[in-house]
Amino acid sequence: MSTSTDHGRPDPEATPPAPGDDGRPVSDRGDTVCVIGAGASGLTAVKNLREHGFGVDCYERETGVGGAWNWRHDRSPVYASTHLISSKPFTQFPDFPMPDSWPDYPHHSQLLSYFERYADHFDLRSHIWFGTEVVRVEPAPGERWDVTTRSTGGYGPERTSRYAAVVIANGHNWSPKLPRYEGLEEFRGEIMHSSSYKDPAQLRGKRVLVVGAGNTGCDIAVEAAQQASRCWHSTRRGYWYAPKYVLGRPADQVNDSLLALRVPLRVRQWLYHWTLRLTVGDLTRFGLPKPDHRVYETHPIANSQLVYYVGHGGIGPVPDIARFHPYAVELADGREIDPEVVVFATGYLPRFEFLDASVFGDSAGAGRPTLWLNAFTPGHPTLAVAGLVQPDSGLFTLSHWQTVLFARLLQARRDRPERAAAFAQRVRERAGERYSGQVKESSRHWFEVGHADYLRAVQRALVDLEGK
Questions:
Q1: Contact 301, 213 (CB under 8 A)
Q2: Which keywords are on file for this protein (predicted)?
Q3: Are the CB atoms for 165 and 315 separated by under 8 Å?
Q4: How far is CA 23 from the centre of its chain?
Q5: Poorest-confidence range of 2-6, 47-51, 106-110?
Q6: Alpha-carbon span 262 to 53, nearest angstrom
Q7: What CATH topology corresponds to 18-174+349-466?
Q8: CA-closest candidate to residue 401, choices 463, 455, 451
């Protein structure tokens, strides 16, 4: 085992790295755990692993913490008006509350300051290698991992270190998913993915077509309604639109109260429809398509303004795109429109470029790992993924408990191997289990979870692991 400094980084005076199986020098980091990414999930992984007694090396390709919420980062999907879509109590880390003075739905700049304060409060920065990207993660003897890194941008030599375990927390909202349409290459207007959208000035005075009905697509359509000369909003199917406030409270807090009371799904669906009838009524009268699924079979879109601007004529709902022409877009119903700018708010695909897809049971390389609790992969008990969930509430609490569970699993591998073996068997048996009832089968919904069901499942896993 190599010696190290107090904060977990390799000591330059230590014994030179030994060669690996392929002749590369490998620095043995002993029982240290590698965390990839210093966004929300990576930060809580570092904090929880340290609290459970593990040394940690965290590699972050950017120069600061915050991941997707740091708008300075090249891969950040954040735009100027981005706010939380889950309310403050259901978003914050359970051991680090957001200030009482903050609004129910904080701005992205507040989220970044929150992560910076979190990192400082728990002294996490000393365990993070900024400006360092992970090139490869490969299984090594003894269920360990060889992690090869280099300076971001490919400058300088590569360096390989051997770790006892790895937590992957590189996020899943940075690799744009772009649709394919006939004639798209010949279209003479401007094409952008929502990942390139930063400010409504990009739309000002232009004819804009927004494609996609996720939360981002709806936000951009609302901004286009205010800034563009004309806005069309194209969706493939109908969706349920939830206001951000219900009965004077953030909608997720009202929904959580029903979940805490174990109100059956059918009753919650009836209550949602009843609320919708009392507020905006039948959305099809606005020209929005009728949903092809029941509410809560996908997570409703949290947006209080889309229906307002549709009702005021600022947004024109249109169906899916049939094909592109050089100066027009043909819609599925045969109409043609003439946008100058097309914004594809069509989501992202998870990418783990540094890891062979077969490690996750993803033989096709489609980006959909086979995991238990969206975190643990069969056959690799020292590898975990943090934050690969799309919850119906905030993410940070889920990432916190995922990484607590992984830290205690690593402790059990050392102190109670029979418990760790039982846990590994459970991963093999239950990988791919869902925690969101019946959902639509599309890449957008691969990682959807109901937060209450998911947290109960994590709690059961913790109890079973500790033998209580």
A1: yes
A2: FAD, Flavoprotein, NADP, Oxidoreductase
A3: no
A4: 37
A5: 2-6
A6: 37
A7: FAD/NAD(P)-binding domain (3.50.50)
A8: 455
Query: Model pTM?
Result: 0.89
What distance in Å separates the CA atoms of residue 36 and residue 254, rounded to the nearest whole number? 35
- Reported as a single tens digit per residue, the pLDDT across 406-455 is 999 999 999 999 999 999 999 999 988 876 554 455 555 578 888 888 99
CA-CA distance, 134 to 332, in Å (whole number)?
Answer: 43
How many Cα atoms within 13 Å fall on the side-chain side of residue 71? 17
Which pair of structure tokens corresponds to residue 206?
Answer: 């232009």
CA distance 314 to 191: 21
How far is the C-alpha of 439 from the C-alpha of 449, rounded, in Å? 9
Residue 167 identity (one-letter amino acid): V
Distance CA 231, CA 229 (A): 7
Closest CA to 92 of 77, 78, 106: 106
Rounded to whole angstroms, the Cα distance separating 166 from 56 reads 10
Pair type for strands 328-331 and 336-337: antiparallel
User: Which residue did the predictor score with more confidence, 49 or 392?
Assistant: 49
Provide the phi-psi class of 207: left if phi over 0, else alpha when psi is between -120 and 50, else beta.
beta
Amino acid at 41: S
Where do the structural domains in the chain lie, given as residue ranges?
18-174+349-466, 178-346
Pick from 325, 385, 336, 331: nearest CA to 361 = 385
Q: Which residues pair with 190 in a beta bridge?
A: 341
Token pair for 111:
């989220």
Token digits of residue 342:
């097309």
Question: β-strand 144-151 against 132-140: which pairing, if any?
Answer: antiparallel
